[in-house]
Amino acid sequence: MSLYDLLVGQPLATSEERAEHIGPVAGIPIFGLDALSSAAYGPEAALTLLIPLGLAGLAHIIPITLAIILLLTIVYFSYRQTIDVYPHGGGSFTVASENLGAHAGLLAAAALMIDYILNVAVGISAGVGALVSAFPSLQPHTLALCLLILFLLTVINMRGVRDTGNAFLIPTYLFIGTLLVVILVGAVRAVLAHGHPIPVIAPPRLPSATVLFTPWLLLKVFSSGCTAMTGVEAVSNGVGAFREPTQANAKRTLTIIIVLLAIFLGGIAILCRVYHIGATDPNGPGYQSVLSQLICAVLGRGWFYYVGIGSILLVLALSANTSFADFPRLTRAIAQDNYLPHVFLIRGRRLLYSYGIYALVGLSAVLLIAFGGITDHLIPLFAIGAFMAFTLSQAGMVMHWLRKPGPRSMHRILINGIGAFATGITLLVVLVTKFVDGAWITTLMIPTIIFLMIAVRRHYDGVARATQLDRPISLEDIHPPLFVIPIDRWSRMTEKGLRFALKLNAQVEGVHIETGEESSKLEQLWKRNVADPIAQAGLPVPTLVNLPSPYRFVLVPLVDYILQLENRFPDRQITVLVPELVVKHWWQTPLHNQRAELLKLLLLMRRNEKISVINIPWYL
Amino acid sequence: MSLYDLLVGQPLATSEERAEHIGPVAGIPIFGLDALSSAAYGPEAALTLLIPLGLAGLAHIIPITLAIILLLTIVYFSYRQTIDVYPHGGGSFTVASENLGAHAGLLAAAALMIDYILNVAVGISAGVGALVSAFPSLQPHTLALCLLILFLLTVINMRGVRDTGNAFLIPTYLFIGTLLVVILVGAVRAVLAHGHPIPVIAPPRLPSATVLFTPWLLLKVFSSGCTAMTGVEAVSNGVGAFREPTQANAKRTLTIIIVLLAIFLGGIAILCRVYHIGATDPNGPGYQSVLSQLICAVLGRGWFYYVGIGSILLVLALSANTSFADFPRLTRAIAQDNYLPHVFLIRGRRLLYSYGIYALVGLSAVLLIAFGGITDHLIPLFAIGAFMAFTLSQAGMVMHWLRKPGPRSMHRILINGIGAFATGITLLVVLVTKFVDGAWITTLMIPTIIFLMIAVRRHYDGVARATQLDRPISLEDIHPPLFVIPIDRWSRMTEKGLRFALKLNAQVEGVHIETGEESSKLEQLWKRNVADPIAQAGLPVPTLVNLPSPYRFVLVPLVDYILQLENRFPDRQITVLVPELVVKHWWQTPLHNQRAELLKLLLLMRRNEKISVINIPWYL
Known about the structure:
homodimer; Amino acid/polyamine transporter I; 5-stranded parallel beta sheet; 21 helices
């Protein structure tokens, strides 16, 4: 297998590539997954805050859900216009940068990065929440299960499994189907029972009310419920993937996704009300997710229940998986503008931007650990990023119409304006009501990320200036360098290092650190195996220097000696030849060469222009 | 500051160095910390298993504690003899290797490594348990607090704080003092109240019994309680630290530690009985540690309570800290025998074996995360390693007396024999009763570690054979190498690379990957700034090669070209000069050179003896 094959291999298709020229049927799983799976945690997040109100709390879930559906409708009409203007895809980063300037772009970038990271954490934790509902004995292992799923997603993505849309198709439609069946059957039963159906399995009794309802609580519940809207921007990001008529197909897909999401949210709210289903304490034992209670109440705990829970777990895990495709592409786009380390530009062996994946996994693992893998604790952080991206995107569209007025401009400005206004107000509401519960973390992270991005950009600009050269090469002080080879014992590796130096016709000093008593033996070997034959061949003869090391240090006397040499020969380059063992299998790596690496690091730390290190590989 | 100073700096004193020439007063904190702090989790571990028995369970704690104190006494007399024989310190690894052979040594090594790792995890989690008892609102953050303390210990140890015994002295004596006061006052009150004292603050009511007492439960409770004995071997490990008469001082210290521990265990058991204090569910809300309940019951929740809890937290954290000194020394000793990677031999800048610390921290973090930072879940894993080390050490002593019989040999064999038998039986009991609860993990890890150690040894032996050389240096094929320099643009870094090659009088090819359209400009610059001046100076003129890269790959065409060169010049070494930017501050590291590293890696992966890489550092 040639290196090129190895490098190119089977690329991990990104959402767009995977979905090249698709219609709504394939589009709904790919672009609707994120949005639709939000129905598994959004309503639950709202209901959790209503726990202290007891049974009375359920009365408030319907008006709050109606408000969220209204907001969803506004955002829907607003994004239809984004699809019209950006036929190749208009993500928040693109729309904000193009229409509102570079700083708005950075703000959108920071918001999106946080959004993607939280999407992983929330998707996984909500999936584990479903699993724990079905198998309560797993509850003490919530965090471990979350990290396990994160690990599996990482391995799958790093190996580059080629996901043919089908991987998304089946679980998504299973999830949609299960939820629609539950809502339909539940609704029919409720109507037949005149609004008082008897649940197949009764949900846990709601606790008695301990607090009174306040407008402040109303706003908090609304803010939590808004997490159900995360992910609805996906279609507008990926318009280019649809087949002709591209924009019409994209809009049709968006319409179906929004309608389904609205049915889910409305249906869950109404059924919770009539079946008296509330959230259970996510910290306490006996936790059961709202959807799990709902399926049990409507259809019992048979095979259908386990299929439903399975599809919820799968859809949430796959929804976390979308960040694995989107986050590295976002960080690459930002790194191209020098705002993030260039390491995000490097494509690994599987053609994916591995470092973006490392960053995503590391940060979402930190979030999962910090919040114990409990969705409810992550929710306050979540909506901020998403709604900031919504607002910037809609505001960017308003600016677009103002700059390039066309037919029905006023009408279009009005729609995007209402979108920007509604999502902006929601952003403020979320910010204020969730601030102490965790939104402060997001609020702190966004400016921190922007500050870091600007610092990275400054650094790169500084380096470009510092390495700038406008004159011809300097040809002063061209003297042959002096070579130093650390000698451990007479071995094949030593031979290879010496041969390399001989090929360069260089003056060589072998340096041996005496930690034991075998140095006189090494001197004899050196004379017989090195000095004599080289002298006979008429080549420059290497010398051997013995350095005593009473404390058995190896690196310290070596570095000291190299620095002395550098002082003794001020006009010559000192080149340290370090034989390096290259192992056959990656797992042998930790067994070798750390001392060589440390030597190199110590020499680099001296920041001495005249000292350089050459690693001579020796293959096992 | 010279590099040597930087390297040597202030060494982190190991237990022995810190304690050079000490008496019992300084010896108790240093060598007793581990053993005495076990009183904070051992009795609690036993009581937790008695929860399902309700109030009736408390009746069993006293006989079980008596059995543990008896075992402690046996181990005490056994270790007195180890002190006699090993005046410079006889750890289990030493005693087992010397008397029972290399394989028993490996077994002891594996058991000790696991013991040290668990000591960190249990010490921290039990300390956090005390903290959470005092401040119940912290309970949801148990794991995060554990990881925070682990992080703090790591930072403290990596920076190398110079701990002057005092750091151990004050908290240990505070802990001993607090616990003695509580036991004394509690006992006096109990006697005055004719065995029915009224607690100052009543402990949480014990739940009603849900199961009946069985002999199997008795053994399980005993096994959990045995974790109170971990750490008693410390004195015999560090005999050499005591002042003359060394062995007498060591024995005196051991006696005091064992007596104190016995008083603690007995006192806690009796007071729990008379004050009706049981363990609380460590998973549920409202968890409170046994010692916290005990202090509350005897002396209330005043300043004394917070001082007591504070000293418990501190002593447990310091007890975890002892592994930070002992684990890296153990891994170094094993690595010297080639059974662990040599990286454990490298002393970092602060004179400590940093990689041992990394391994310890990584593995204990895994344990803390896997078990949610809850002591009770870690306990089943803990006693195995400790008791295996006890047994091997005592069995080694028996073998010692058999080999070198002296006066009173039979008497001594009997004492160590009883020690080995008692700890061996306990090991079996712990293994059987705790197997499904987690001891299987330890049981699986010990052979795994031994297998890995043997594999590492085999690998090193194989490498030594493969690099072995018994003939003089080969002087065939000494041809000058061909140099390749990847050229990005004309910069100071490019200049430095070219100058290095000129100093070696080498033939150079500059290779430019055309990803944009500026290559014609670079060609002009090359002619004006490089080729012309070098030709005028009469030096070998470097050539410039442009490689088109339509897909904007950089590394693939470069590697391909280098391989082509290698084919074209079969008898010459190909040396790739990679200019490398060396940043000023460590935190700038992630911003540079990953592509250079990847190029090096890709070339190494070819395993081609004729290709080598030279990094030319350029200092920012």
